Amino acid sequence: MGEFIMEKDLYVLGIESSCDETAASIVKNGTEIISNVVASQIESHKRFGGVVPEIASRHHVENVTLVIEAALEQANMQPEQLDAVCITEGPGLVGALLIGINAAKAFAFAHSLPIVGTHHIAGHIYANNLIQPMEFPLLALVVSGGHTELVLMKEHGSFEVIGETRDDAAGEAYDKVARVLDIPYPGGPRIDAMAHESDAAVDFPRVWLEHDSYDFSFSGLKSAVINYQHNAKQRGGDINPYHIAKGFQDSVVEVLTAKTLRAAREFDVKQVIAAGGVSANKGLRHELETIF
User: Fold this and answer.
1) What is the pLDDT of residue 5?
2) Lowest CB count within 10 Å: 115, 157, 242, 279, which one?
3) Is the sign of the CA dihedral 161, 190, 179, 42 positive or negative?
4) What does the pLDDT read at residue 211?
5) Could you give the angle at the alpha carbon of 171 between the alpha carbons of 168 and 173, nearest 5°?
6) Distance of alpha carbon 190 from its chain centroid, rounded?
7) Are 214 and 162 in contact (CB under 8 A)?
8) d(CA 105, CA 171)
9) How many Å separate Cα 251 from the centre of its chain?
10) What are the pLDDT digits (tens) for 124-173?
11) What pLDDT score was predicted for residue 236?
12) Beta strands at 148-153 and 160-164: parallel, antiparallel or unpaired
């Protein structure tokens, strides 16, 4: 097949409301971000130690129209200059997703624009295409608050999940351990920072599952942290949260990177990419950059 050449630039409005952030962005030709506006809800959820679905939905109702308008203003564009609307259709919090989907439908209908639903995880993976072209076959390590997966892609739009979490996602484990250590939500970035500041680490277990499995499990590691904290308090010993943070992160990162490396070799991929919120973790990024 010959190279596809677009007759005109294509501008797409993307809307996201799957969890605790309302976001809208306008992207040109699938690779250039023209505007990006995010309304965060961290302050509202912080006192609960995690995302409260009902509160998240109410904030989406309040913010979604304002965020769309701000994205258009930032791009200096009018709705009639857009070519399509794209909306996260799942997975995510049901109430939160419905707010974004209905807002996208209303906007698309009002301006006679086609609307395209996007899978949440596919969106995470394809965000990498904004940085550099994707080369197939590729392996994507998806790590976020709700998901931990290894996804093999042999071509555009082809997703084969070869490994996934059997219990807690990596980001979920970070948030739960943060609560044990009395670290305010969101705890993941703080645990990452504490791990880098620590001069020692508690030796927590690595959960490998079956020898040939690409699945993950972090529930046992979370329990090990809780038990260590509880036993130390019972003995009246000193508890160093920095050492706990480093031990926990070392365990998570080693399992994630080791399984990713093994899968990359087995499937002989040309590219390995990281996606999802936890992919911003400095410890994880450093190890991935080191081995790849």
Assistant:
1) 63
2) 157
3) negative
4) 86
5) 50
6) 17
7) yes
8) 31
9) 19
10) 999 999 999 999 999 999 999 889 999 999 999 999 999 999 999 999 99
11) 86
12) antiparallel
- The helix/strand count (H/E) of the chain reads as 9, 9
Nearest to 62 by CA among 14, 106, 99: 99
DSSP 74-138: HHT--GGG--EEEEEEESS-HHHHHHHHHHHHHHHHHTT--EEEEEHHHHHHHGGGGTS---SSE
Q: Where are the beta strands (DSSP E) in the chain?
A: 11-16, 21-28, 32-40, 84-90, 115-119, 138-143, 148-153, 160-164, 271-275
Residue 1: the pLDDT is: 41
Question: What is the CA angle 269-273-276, rounded to 5?
Answer: 145
Q: What are phi and psi of 289, to 5 degrees?
A: -65, -30
Q: How far apart are CA 26 and CA 12, in angstroms?
A: 6
The helix/strand/coil state of 217 is: coil
Could you say which residues of the chain have pLDDT below 70?
Answer: 1-6
- Give the tokens for residue 36: 């990006």
- From the list 11, 12, 274, the residue with the least C-alpha distance to 121 is 274
Separation CA 105–CA 112 (nearest Å): 10
Q: How far is 45 from 47, CA to CA, in rounded Å?
A: 6
The SS3 assignment for 207 reads coil
- Please state the φ and ψ torsions of residue 84, each to the nearest 5 degrees: -165, 165
Q: Which residues contact 23 (CB under 8 A, 6 or more apart)?
A: 14, 15, 16, 17, 36, 37, 38, 39, 67
Of the candidates 208, 248, 242, 246, the one whose C-alpha atom is nearest the C-alpha of residue 226 is 248
